[in-house]
Automatic annotation (TrEMBL):
<dbReference type="GO" id="GO:0016592">
    <property type="term" value="C:mediator complex"/>
</dbReference>
<dbReference type="GO" id="GO:0006357">
    <property type="term" value="P:regulation of transcription by RNA polymerase II"/>
</dbReference>
<dbReference type="Pfam" id="PF08612">
    <property type="entry name" value="Med20"/>
</dbReference>
<keyword id="KW-0804">Transcription</keyword>
<keyword id="KW-0539">Nucleus</keyword>
<keyword id="KW-0010">Activator</keyword>
<keyword id="KW-0805">Transcription regulation</keyword>
<dbReference type="GO" id="GO:0003713">
    <property type="term" value="F:transcription coactivator activity"/>
</dbReference>
<comment type="similarity">
    <text>Belongs to the Mediator complex subunit 20 family.</text>
</comment>
<dbReference type="InterPro" id="IPR013921">
    <property type="entry name" value="Mediator_Med20"/>
</dbReference>
<protein>
    <recommendedName>
        <fullName>Mediator of RNA polymerase II transcription subunit 20</fullName>
    </recommendedName>
</protein>
<comment type="function">
    <text>Component of the Mediator complex, a coactivator involved in the regulated transcription of nearly all RNA polymerase II-dependent genes. Mediator functions as a bridge to convey information from gene-specific regulatory proteins to the basal RNA polymerase II transcription machinery. Mediator is recruited to promoters by direct interactions with regulatory proteins and serves as a scaffold for the assembly of a functional preinitiation complex with RNA polymerase II and the general transcription factors.</text>
</comment>
<comment type="subunit">
    <text>Component of the Mediator complex.</text>
</comment>
Length: 207
């Protein structure tokens, strides 16, 4: 596990998600990346029963960590558990219940390019397609402050010079700490929460 950056990918006007992700795949493969498989990140959101102003609990499963489950509270801490966590929550339905429309996922392809791992996914809620996710991981590094420049330079290779280069708040707050997988999951939670908003516009721009 290195340092990972998770971002939305803007679909240009006049294109649909499938057309755009195929162009993204072509751009990545032109850099020399090799397709190494598939990936899925699933998120189901829960709310506390009969608790006013309660924080949402997000339960995340990633195929990169098949033996783990990640629980992230809205604007709060996260914990890493084993595969029994969903079963445990199901026994607490008097306390925590799944939110209506609370299941969302990103599913797509995994690439390797030297020391980088890239994942491109189509984000969907049930039958509805919400957008595209892009994850870039630089595997040799464990401190975000040491490799953010390398990550952004790679992104500019197929995003263009117009991309936002500021370190996201989630990463910035822990830029001098050892990076852990739960930070990646928190980035997906933030992305999924934004994608649920009908008026959300991704900040990453294509060429």
């Amino acid at each position: 596990m290195g340092v990972a950056y998770v971002s939305p990918w803007k679909v240009p006007a006049g294109q649909n998600v499938q057309q755009n992700i195929e162009e993204l795949h072509n751009s990545i493969e032109q850099l020399g990346a090799i397709k190494t498989g598939l990936f899925t990140v699933e998120c189901e959101s829960y709310h506390a029963v009969n608790v006013a102003n309660s924080k949402t609990l997000h339960l995340i499963h990633s195929t990169e960590y098949p033996a783990s489950r990640f629980a992230c509270f809205e604007d709060g801490p996260s914990i890493v558990s084993d595969v029994m966590l969903p079963s445990f929550l199901s026994k607490l339905r008097s306390v925590w219940q799944p939110r209506k429309g609370g299941r969302i996922e990103s599913k797509g392809h995994r690439y390797e390019l030297g020391d980088f791992v890239l994942k491109t996914g189509i984000i969907s809620m049930g039958p509805s397609t919400k957008g595209i996710s892009l994850e870039v991981e630089y595997t040799p590094c464990v401190y975000p402050c040491d490799c953010w420049g390398i990550i952004t330079e790679l992104l500019k290779g197929f995003v263009g010079e117009n991309m936002a280069t500021n370190m996201p708040t989630l990463i910035l707050e822990k830029s001098k700490e050892i990076y852990t997988p739960d930070i990646t999951m928190q980035q997906y939670v933030e992305l999924f929460s934004n994608m649920r908003k009908s008026n959300y516009t991704p900040i990453v721009c294509v060429k």
